[in-house]
Amino acid sequence: MSDIKHGAPEIPTPLRVFMTFESTGWFETTQKQKEQELLPNLKKILNEWEENGSKLLGTFDRDIMTAGSSGPVNWHACFLYDVPDLQTITNMTHAFRDAGIDRYFRIEASIGRPFFLLEN
To answer: What domain count does the chain have?
Structure first.
């Protein structure tokens, strides 16, 4: 018999958030627009996320074996964060709209929890 017990999931504090990131309008822009507008705005938002109480746990970028459209998985990269609350998650995704880069990038958050057999 095992000592492992698995009951109903509990909502963690902080929230574990998996964010998928897709370059939607990126391919319709010029190199100048990418370098002078889109990447600086994206970097600014990502830096602001460091100051909102969230903790970046890891990233994953699929560009080693892919090029072009994201394909059926609908994301190019993903970010894993611990985030203090739902409003912070909403603020993180809204930052793309507020900066006007939601035409070029898509961000989507999924809330979960650490996997009970690997993280205590």
So the answer is: 1
